[in-house]
Amino acid sequence: MTVQIPQTYDDLQQKYQSFISRRDNDRHLNIFWETNPSKFNENNGQKFIELSGGMPHESFFPIDSMNLNILKEPVSQDTISVDITKEKPDKLPLLRTLQYALSEGFQPLIDFIMNFITKLNNIPLYDKSLWKIIIAGGSCDSLYKFFETCTDESTTVMVEELTFVPVISNIINTGAKVIPLRLNLDNSDEGIDLNYMESLLTNWSKGPYKHLNKPKFLYTIPTGQNPTGLTQSIEKRQKIYQLAQKFDFVILEDDPYGYLKFPKFNHKDPNSNIYKDGITSQEYIEKVLMKSYISMDTDGRVVRFETFSKIFAPGMRLSFIIMNKFFYDKFLKFQEISTRQPSGIGQQIVYSTIHSMAHSSNDNDVIEAWLQWIMKLAGNYTERRNVMLESLYKTQSYKQNLLDFVEPSAGMFVIIKIHFKGDNIIEQMNDLAKIMDNNGVRAILGYKMAVDQNFSHDNLNYFRLTYAYADNTAQIKEAIDRIDKSLVQYFAK
Amino acid sequence: MTVQIPQTYDDLQQKYQSFISRRDNDRHLNIFWETNPSKFNENNGQKFIELSGGMPHESFFPIDSMNLNILKEPVSQDTISVDITKEKPDKLPLLRTLQYALSEGFQPLIDFIMNFITKLNNIPLYDKSLWKIIIAGGSCDSLYKFFETCTDESTTVMVEELTFVPVISNIINTGAKVIPLRLNLDNSDEGIDLNYMESLLTNWSKGPYKHLNKPKFLYTIPTGQNPTGLTQSIEKRQKIYQLAQKFDFVILEDDPYGYLKFPKFNHKDPNSNIYKDGITSQEYIEKVLMKSYISMDTDGRVVRFETFSKIFAPGMRLSFIIMNKFFYDKFLKFQEISTRQPSGIGQQIVYSTIHSMAHSSNDNDVIEAWLQWIMKLAGNYTERRNVMLESLYKTQSYKQNLLDFVEPSAGMFVIIKIHFKGDNIIEQMNDLAKIMDNNGVRAILGYKMAVDQNFSHDNLNYFRLTYAYADNTAQIKEAIDRIDKSLVQYFAK
């Protein structure tokens, strides 16, 4: 096929209409209110009076003002005090965020996100008028709504063979089919197996899924993949994007962990941590962060999912999506019909917190302040990753070749592969998990995150560990000791 | 049919399985985490270590603590200061609400709601073990999810002929059919026309909708109906419940305005306001509030929708539903697959605010404090309602019989019916709306809230006004003056 850069909305519509679900085509929002501004002339000092919207007056809201104490940096005790009132901050005061609002999210928060992703170059290459940002209620909400908008019984979606399986529910529940892609679980060529993928697509009509339509979507977690912790190289991303153009599928880039990116583990100096060495935000952007799929996108075929859950707090239930304007319009229609606006108070707190971290309200200062927060966070994760890997290398189990593992360079997860004997892997995993539980440690049983246990038969023998939730690094060491003890016990039987 | 009070979950399942949508039956959540507590014995002082959940540690959340200034009563300047920290309030601290959480909502907030609705007797008559409360992200979210769970191409849903039409989108988008019920728009027998309804159901196979399946659901806003402001009498509710039993449909009671209930407008004393006269909460519950459908429910056939939007603030995006446990389980499954948990920080703020209004943490004190807030709010709405009605009675338009209206005794809305000449009502409504806009006032054009404009041909000639959003009562008077002026201008043409 010939690749064309979209120039107009019509180009997008023509190109992507076939990527919209049957259900979306039947979806219409009945509204009864007027959306045009009044033409009433207020110059004579008389105010236009609105008796339309069934909105409580702001004086009826019980929250008069709030004050946040925000951390100067993660884990710190130092705090900054932030006042939020019905008039302040002036671009997004409580008066607005406590009230009903538009389903796409508040414009001042969207403006911040736009500035931020532009600074990071996480923006498409086609014209800026043809893509948009929408705010949603957490990544689960984003993904659920996207699949409702775009997939149906006729759709095939490719996913990594081991993945965040709740998303599979979202896809399958629309009637769509999910097929697994082979993953390389080694440190030299991490992530989707390109040869497998290209061969599958090229020989579709002779392959194992020939009874299904050719795939319209690839769902991938390219950085710090869940559960494997793998990060796709730039070369791999470029080749996958070329495959997307050749075989005309859309890439759904789910990137909750992208900011938690670290250099490879340093065996000679396990404690090395560039974030503690004093890296600048420019170096972070240019040398540490991975190039996103959306930054390669000339065609409008990448949809990028981000969330505030991992870098702010999950309880905010806030996420956002960057996508071409045609997909955006369809998504927004569905958001209007279903949940309507994401939490107003959540948007308020995220906006106010980030802006209060900065020395001034200047856009660049705000971006820099948020980058500093994120880098400090990534520094903490680096330390935790280092401790977990160092501890794993020191275990009896590793030395006795009872396990091996993949060193993550992003995200929250490490998988440890257990060298079981025999073929009844699931039974053995369950037995080992019981011993671990008895020893006071728990991890995710890998086979539960396989899309197709038959397909992934050789990749079921792992546990997913996280270093995110431990109270401190001493607890990480203790946890690995307990896992080690459990493995030695298990294999001594 | 014989009516049986459900005794067990199996009874519910048997009775209501046919009320579940085709799509729900295909809906499954893939989870990979362990939900059973560990059996690890922590008695020896060793703590169980969780390496499963991909949750950021709480020390990584930027919000260390927050302080709310909450109003002592609506419109007041007096405030109470409320501290929320990672440890406080002890039943629901920030540590929990900033983190990932269960999709059904936080138990301490659910417990409060349970105590509150029990006090108000808004609970079913069948066994307490067979119904539950779930928290969702605002009433739109509640209703959207309920229809996704229960309706499909085979379902017919009855609704009031004039209604909150966005909900029609939710129903129709599942493939279900909506049919309008005749409304009485007079002060003596408000709301659904019982004769019409009973005749329709009794003669279904000979009626205008005989091509559709018999209705499985009635969606109704029984108190302060939107847009009409009508409130169904208790006798009407009892008869409709009997019809529901006879014709085996489920009643969806959407009650956002139920707490904003007032005595009838007093023509002799337009300023009379029982809330300012010093009514007790017990009198409010027993003499002012309407008996809800759910309080009559012996069978599990009422689903009650409430929201914090009208009595707290819309920007919280929090609502809840009371329903039988069988519907609950299906709804929860869908919530888990779609949006997952409602906003944690929203739940935090609602919980902390309400509990801080009370003199003590005693359950009864908390309920009483929240009732006092709500009654003060209802008092403000009563005053606004009074001012709007008194102003309407004084208009030239009313005296010249250009309009009449229904006196609301609940909620936020008044409809004014315009006595147009001729048959081109919609055209005339649009013309009049332009004149109103020129005069600096706007209201909702009634025909836009009709389910079926042909069916409601004689009920399209109204505007919906709200007294909720005006800055003060002076502005309400000014708005009615402008409407009056507009009508006189229009009919002078």
From TrEMBL, chains A, B:
Domain Aminotransferase class I/classII large: 133-483
InterPro entries linked: Aminotransferase_I/II_large (IPR004839), Class-I_PLP-dep_aminotransf (IPR050859), PyrdxlP-dep_Trfase (IPR015424), PyrdxlP-dep_Trfase_major (IPR015421)
Keyword Calcium: no
Keyword Transferase found: yes
Cofactors required: pyridoxal 5'-phosphate
Keywords: Aminotransferase, Pyridoxal phosphate, Transferase
Entry-linked Gene3D superfamilies: Type I PLP-dependent aspartate aminotransferase-like (Major domain) (3.40.640.10)
BP-aspect Gene Ontology terms: aromatic amino acid family catabolic process; lysine biosynthetic process via aminoadipic acid; tyrosine biosynthetic process
Any GO molecular function: 2-aminoadipate transaminase activity
Pfam entry (one): Aminotran_1_2
Family the entry assigns: Belongs to the class-I pyridoxal-phosphate-dependent aminotransferase family.
Record-given protein name: Aminotransferase class I/classII large domain-containing protein
Annotated organism of origin: Maudiozyma exigua
Lineage, uppermost ranks: Eukaryota, Fungi, Dikarya, Ascomycota, Saccharomycotina
